[in-house]
Amino acid sequence: MTTQARKQQKSGGQARAEHRYLNAQGAEVKTRDEAFARPMEVSAEAIQTMAKLELHNGQVTFAIEVKYNPNTYPHVVTGGQITSGICGAPWNITGGTIGDQLRLDAKRAGQGSCANTITIVGEYQNPPAYRGTYGFEGATSSFKHTTRYEC
Q: How many angstroms separate the Cα of 97 from the Cα of each of 67, 75, 120, 148?
């Protein structure tokens, strides 16, 4: 997003407006066209952000770090990990979406004789959380959960 700042200068008793333009990175540029120009290269970090979630299922709590593209809606999940609380942790998140509905797909990266995949699905509710189910090896409705945003 660009920002246009105005400076008021008095020149011979008259006020004159001088325009300053800032590009999306916050650097001052000379023209409006430069301010709105697309950056030539966009890093992977520029198109993803991270959210921490906690999945609660009575006796079990999964710690989840999700990377997603904030420029899409529903937000497209680009990666992340389930770092604890589940057999064979960590689990690498391979895809999904975050919006009115939650879907996370993950593969086991840790050791153990646990399932190889998990799928978590849920519906948004207030305060910010998802209520739904999850399952292993392609199933999505084996266990109930509430997954909340971690502050």
A: 10, 5, 10, 15
**What are the pLDDT digits (tens) for 122-149?**
999 988 899 999 999 888 888 999 999 8
Listed residue (130, 128, 125) closest to 145, CA to CA: 130
Q: List 57's β-bridge partners, or say none.
A: 60
Q: Is the pTM here over 0.85, yes or no?
A: no
Strands (E), the chain: 3-11, 14-22, 28-29, 49-57, 60-69, 75-84, 91-98, 101-108, 117-125, 129-136, 143-149
DSSP 78-113: EEEEEEESSTT--EEEEEEEESSEEEEEEEE-S-SS
Residue tagged 């849920």 (tokens): 122
Q: Is the backbone peptide bond immediately before 39 cis, with ω within 30 degrees of 0? A: no
Cβ contacts of 131-136, under 8 Å, gap ≥ 24: 132/102, 134/55, 134/57
